[in-house]
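Both lines are retained for reference:
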Amino acid sequence: MKKYSAVCTPFFALAVAMVFALNLVACSAAENDKKPAEQKGEKPKAEAPKAPAPKADAKPAAAGKDDFIVQVNGEKLTTAEVDAMLDGQMASISKQVPPEQMEQVKAQLEQMKGKWRQQLSDYFIQKTVLAQEADKKKIVVTDDEVNAQLKEYEQQIPPGTKLEDVLKQQGVSIEKLKADINNILKAKKLMDSQITAGPAPTDEEIKNYYDVNKSKFDEPEKVHARHVLVKANATDNETVKKAKKAKIETIRKKLVAQGDFAKIAQENSDCPSKAKGGDLGTFSKGQMVKPFEDAAFGQKVNEIGPVVETQFGYHVIQTQEHLPAKTKTLDQVKPDIIKSLQEQNKQKAIKDYIDGLTKQATIVYGKN
């Protein structure tokens, strides 16, 4: 049975508008040593870069001027806007925190607030220089395109929750979100028109990447297993435990007698995997609870193992495949390496393009 752990990560959340924007990866820079995403079955991801250094003449606004965080070619990010987003975000996070942890969490949130403020400022600079350049080039985004992207956001929200409620908690209006979407889509169109695909990586570059990152192509020892579970509960008394143990032993005898494992699992197992005949797929060490793992990795292939007890109950396990650890060859991963190197080159070109626009911009920082 798989291990599950509750991980609470409230301190890294940002205002909804920023999160949505960064998810589009419109202006991002890939890590140079990133493993090809296909190795994990995912599309390549990239991180949003920090805003490039502004022009040398950028300087803080004198005290007493308009209350803003940063101004880019005359367009301002006001303190009120940032505070509304941050306060809304912090209030939303606080509602999810148990009362006994509230003081500690509030202190941590206050520590993060300065970092969030800087991230919003950096993002605003990037977004603004791109939007302004897109306007110069008369790039247009239609209402239909904005609404289509908005629907994608709505699909990411948990069932029973309205986008308007989420935005209200974050201090972001629907109009502001739509404006951000418009700018982001403009930026994407702009970069699609300005950034050209670089040359294909050479065999030498591919080989070098493979040699430097060889450990990333290691595959751990794995097994493919299926099981039948008779679920146990912490409240079970000795009589109930004895009955459940007797039940699993009876099931095991049927399996040892060449019973149809998939059918027996479907009819008797208390695990959701019963729908697949008890099949748990392929897994490596560390993914299952220890007693289950030890049994699955220790049994002979196709053997019906002894009853194993875990926190979930009583299991009968059959290991169907045992795959040794290995390192994928260069030929096996070459297509993934090519994609990764091309993505890195593209992201570098995007970053350089944004750097160039930023250096040309007049950026003034407010007193805040």
Remarks:
- The beta strands are 68-72, 75-78, 218-219, 222-231, 279-284, 308-310, 313-323, 326-327, 363-365.
- Residues 3-65 have pLDDT under 50 and may be disordered.
